[in-house]
UniProtKB/TrEMBL annotation:
<dbReference type="GO" id="GO:0046872">
    <property type="term" value="F:metal ion binding"/>
</dbReference>
<feature type="signal peptide">
    <location>
        <begin position="1"/>
        <end position="19"/>
    </location>
</feature>
<dbReference type="InterPro" id="IPR006680">
    <property type="entry name" value="Amidohydro-rel"/>
</dbReference>
<dbReference type="InterPro" id="IPR032466">
    <property type="entry name" value="Metal_Hydrolase"/>
</dbReference>
<dbReference type="GO" id="GO:0005829">
    <property type="term" value="C:cytosol"/>
</dbReference>
<dbReference type="Pfam" id="PF01979">
    <property type="entry name" value="Amidohydro_1"/>
</dbReference>
<keyword id="KW-0732">Signal</keyword>
<keyword id="KW-0479">Metal-binding</keyword>
<dbReference type="InterPro" id="IPR011059">
    <property type="entry name" value="Metal-dep_hydrolase_composite"/>
</dbReference>
<protein>
    <recommendedName>
        <fullName>Amidohydrolase-related domain-containing protein</fullName>
    </recommendedName>
</protein>
<dbReference type="InterPro" id="IPR051607">
    <property type="entry name" value="Metallo-dep_hydrolases"/>
</dbReference>
<keyword id="KW-0862">Zinc</keyword>
<keyword id="KW-0378">Hydrolase</keyword>
<dbReference type="GO" id="GO:0019239">
    <property type="term" value="F:deaminase activity"/>
</dbReference>
<feature type="domain" description="Amidohydrolase-related">
    <location>
        <begin position="78"/>
        <end position="434"/>
    </location>
</feature>
Length: 501
């Protein structure tokens, strides 16, 4: 036995009375090497967890483990850290599949928190948020930063936060301060967030309170921002997040905007979702203040926020999902899309000079780090997204014998380029099993499924009967025009077809 990071196992059983330990023995461990800041693949390795933490990583089975340790044989399997999603709107799950060809402008006017609260009640928010979190856990996403736009009332806020707690997932729940015409103002929400901070069960759950805010610029209300940032400090929030697009979209909320107000260079992490048109000055600010962006590859392709400069800021980037109602909720898919998109772009640079590439511009290891470790860095939680002694026991076990993975040699390539959610055999958050034997075992799942189905059916029928709005001629003063539609049919017609809701 050779411990990777020197640890003393024996004292564990003396000090940690009643501690629950599990040893995952004999698998391929995709561990993290703090010296090289890279991956450390250990074949025939073992991982010991005690309560919510990883307490040992070994190159072979340790000869001594704490008394009462559960031994789990993972021979032939791959064990990785859980994935981290740094941008999500989890409450929206009930809209799943009803907006497959929607646009971003239509989304705001039809599916967003500026419309939904007039039809959704607190039970709907709870059911929808919970089902979405089980979907994410099933997909190996153990942590997520939720830009929680469902905070339009005390009841709706409380319901969504309760769902996070009940799910067992590690949710950085970003309470959203927004004005919703005809319903609520930012002013009304100060007492609501204070109440959320006191929610029973929050302290003992992996979920923490954060803040989401999209009013940084242009034309910020400085008094409002000062008040929100004072609350951020008073409530010791775990993270602040904002939608940042710039370019033709507007929604600046740029690093420059926040820095101008003296709130960028702070100890609290600030995550900029998309940052599609980040400027070189904004990128320099992210680096000097160590703040991160969340690239949401599938969202940015689906809606056209795009990501023309994100290739250049991957050293300050993590990966996110955004609206899981319109596409996959798994960070594995995001990592794969982003890897190939980066390769495509970097190859194009070469081809456009009428030359050919002699090397591959991005590796599977880099995509793996973005999907795991970088989420932890964005949240300033170096104990998340890695397998190393002292890290949180948020783990995924992959079935190495599945048809997709059979014959694998490189476990990182196997996961990033060949696996799917169906190959995830087990998931643990904070050392607790949420998926095992390929099935969700979280105790709330059967009820959550039944309740969600009822809720989703009712809400989907309301939206089916809601007339489609005409797109506006302008958005934030920018003309709105039709892109060229794809044509997949020979001859007349293009095959655009219909939606089936
Ligand atoms: C929300 O609406 C559903 C369907 O009408 C109902 O069953 C449920 O009790 C309502 N929940 C609340 C909190 O009003
Ligand atoms: C909320 O409304 C106030 C008053 O109109 C405005 O000054 C403020 O900028 C708004 N905040 C956001 C985040 O839109
Ligand atoms: C604030 O939260 C951090 C974790 O996000 C924790 O380490 C720290 O102890 C908290 N501080 C206070 C004063 O509660
Ligand atoms: C942020 O603060 C650190 C330490 O206080 C300082 O060294 C750095 O220059 C600051 N960066 C910016 C952009 O203000
Ligand atoms: C989506 O497709 C449906 C059916 O063809 C169409 O009615 C709708 O206008 C489309 N929506 C958008 C935003 O393209
Ligand atoms: Zn978003």
């Amino acid at each position: 036995m050779r411990p990777i990071n020197a640890i003393a196992i024996l004292p564990l059983c003396l000090t940690a009375v009643g501690a629950a330990s599990t040893l995952f023995r004999g698998g391929t461990v995709v561990a993290f090497n703090k010296q090289t800041q890279g991956l450390n693949v250990i074949r025939g390795g073992s991982v010991l967890i005690t309560n919510d933490r990883i307490t040992g990583v070994f190159t072979s089975a340790p000869s001594k483990v704490p008394a009462g340790t559960e031994i789990v044989d993972i021979t032939g399997k791959i064990i990785t850290p859980g994935f981290i999603d740094t941008h999500r709107h989890g409450w929206q799950t009930a809209f799943k599949t009803i907006a497959s060809n929607t646009t971003l402008i239509e989304f705001f006017g039809r599916y967003s928190s500026f419309v939904a609260p007039f039809f959704w009640n607190a039970t709907d928010v709870y059911d929808s948020q919970l089902a979405g979190l089980y979907e994410a856990l099933n997909a190996g996403v153990t942590s997520s930063l939720d830009h929680a736009t469902h905070t339009w009332s005390k009841d709706a806020s409380s319901a969504g936060l309760q769902a996070c707690i009940d799910s067992g997932a590690r949710v950085f729940w970003g309470f959203t301060f927004a004005n919703i015409t005809g319903l609520v103002t930012v002013e009304d929400l100060y007492p609501v967030i204070r109440e959320m901070a006191k929610k029973p069960g929050l302290r003992n759950s992996p979920t923490t309170l954060g803040i989401a805010y999209d009013g940084w610029g242009p034309n910020p209300n400085v008094a409002e921002i000062n008040k929100i940032m004072a609350l951020a400090k008073e409530l010791n929030v775990s993270v602040i997040t904002t939608h940042s697009l710039q370019g033709p979209w507007g929604f600046n909320n740029s690093p420059e905007d926040i820095h101008a107000l003296n709130y960028l260079n702070i100890s609290t992490p600030i995550v900029f979702s998309h940052a599609s048109f980040l400027t070189p000055a904004g990128a320099a600010l992210l680096r000097s203040t160590n703040q991160y962006i969340s690239i949401t590859p599938e969202s940015e392709m689906h809606y056209g926020q795009t990501h023309p400069v994100s290739y250049n800021i991957q050293d300050q980037a993590s990966l996110g999902i955004d609206t899981h109602i319109t596409f996959s909720t798994d960070i594995l898919t995001q990592a794969r899309i982003w890897l190939q998109q980066t390769r495509y772009e970097r190859y194009l640079d070469v081809l456009e000079q009428s030359k050919l590439p002699r090397s591959n511009p991005m590796s599977a290891e880099q995509a793996f780090l973005l999907a795991t470790r970088h989420g932890g860095l964005a949240l300033r939680r170096p104990d998340l997204g890695i397998i190393a002694e002292g890290a949180k026991a948020d783990l995924v076990i992959w079935d190495g014998n599945s048809p997709a993975l059979l014959g694998w040699v490189d476990p990182v390539a196997a996961v990033i380029l060949h696996a799917s959610v169906g190959d995830i055999e087990a998931v643990l958050v904070d050392g607790k099993w949420v998926k095992r034997g390929g099935k969700l075992v979280a105790k709330g799942w059967p009820d959550a499924r039944a309740n969600f189905l009822r809720t989703a059916k009712r809400l989907q029928a309301i939206w089916r009967d809601m007339p489609m709005p005409e797109p506006p001629a302008e958005f934030n003063g920018v003309p709105v025009v039709s892109p060229v539609q794809a044509d997949v049919l020979r001859g007349p017609g293009n095959g655009y077809g219909n939606v089936y809701i």
